[in-house]
Known about the structure:
Radius of gyration: 18 Å
Number of strands: 12
Helix content: under 10%
Structural class: mainly beta
Distance between the termini: 22 Å
Strand order of the largest sheet: 3-2-4-10-7-8
Strand content: 35-45%
Amino acid sequence: MNVTDPLxxxxxxxxxxxxxxxxxxxxxxxxxxxxxxxxxTFSGSAVYTTTVTLTAADLARRKLILDLGEVHDLxxxxxxGAELPAALWHPYTVDATTALRPGVNTISVRVxxxxxNSRNKILASxxxxxxxxxxxxxxxxxxxxxx
Length: 147
């Protein structure tokens, strides 16, 4: 097989909004990084949201893998409202192909940390990234019986 597609990653470098799942929290635009920079003792979940515009060419004859980069500690993602499988450990990657469409796509990532921060053992928490859509060539091979 000869793949001529350069398979260049599509960076999801923002802007991102972040909302901690706690009473009174509001979504604010922030760069990706540990939420301990603004809520050091928070243990729970936060939702990170961004959009990306894709063309039909971005989607044609490819798989697109959502690569979350560095995550503390587990993540679930939705793309255009469709929930993807949980990303529980490194590498934090999930196939987003069937949920993506040409035009504007909304990507949300819910990250949950451990109880350590609420017990004053401050550990990195949240979506640190970098986040990207990583194309993979979709190839079809026809097998024929030979003698």
